[in-house]
Amino acid sequence: MSERLAVIVVNYASSGLLATNLAQTAAELPDAAIVVVDNFSTDDERRRAVAVCAEHAWTLLTPDANLGFGGGVNLGVRQALAAGATAVLLLNPDATIDAASVALLEAEIDDGRLVAAAPRIVDSDGAVWFAGADLYLDDGTTRGRSRRDLHPDAPRREWLTGACVLVTDVAWEASGGFDEEYFLYWEDVDFSFRIVDAGGRLALVEAATAIHDEGGTQRADAAPSRAKSSGYYYYNIRNRMLFATRHLDADGVRRWRRGIVAQARAVLLRGGRRQFLSPWAPLSAGWRGVRDARRIAATARR
């Protein structure tokens, strides 16, 4: 590999996946540094993370609290860059990628340093999980790239999922890394925008493939599947408006604010209708997300 590569994995109560998925990827990339950030969940989980990282001689960072996805990534990347990495591969614990696909991502960044590159991502059954995604600027809807023909005239910008993405050191520094205020979800959308705003580019390398068994992260096409966690609902609803205040003008913020309830309903329906047989958890998370999204929008108007 021409890059000095580090693989960054943020663990939260998923040490079993480190022992299987990350071990598989690490075996494919023997020259890469492996950095695991264990966002604190329980003492038992911390002990398991320590054990698996010691077994494989991986670098383990152990914050005393849960820093969120963005905070965990930032901590891991700082460690990797300080140790001399020139590119970082952000990888979910429930994802794997082989050496050939990583080489294709590296080839994409060789022709320009201010680049982030992502593979096509499928689940274990071969169904597409991510093949490019767009954010529609008129209303804040995210859709898969394959649906562009349905909305040919709508203003949009691309984004890359943080589930598996290769980022150069230059792109990381120019963009400022992840915005930790998101905590969970939408930080990769925000990060993608800031790379482009800094003069960089995003690359979807469809010949490269990663495998990801969804553990609660959002599908780019927002297709309904199984019930999601309360955190999924809350942060996806809240963070849409946080993103708006970061990247849109006053008219855009007002436009997205008018769609908060409709977008919240769409987010809740990603978990399917059966979850509403016991509706308290999803509806409570949705209500809190709407409440805080409105608070964020109101603060932006001051």
Automatic annotation (TrEMBL):
Q: Name one Pfam family in it.
A: Glycos_transf_2
Q: Which GO terms describe its molecular function?
A: transferase activity
InterPro entries xrefs: Glyco_trans_2-like, Nucleotide-diphossugar_trans
Q: Where is the Glycosyltransferase 2-like domain?
A: 7-130
* Keyword terms: Transferase
The organism's superkingdom is given as Bacteria
UniProt protein name: GT2 family glycosyltransferase
Organism for this UniProt entry: Agromyces atrinae
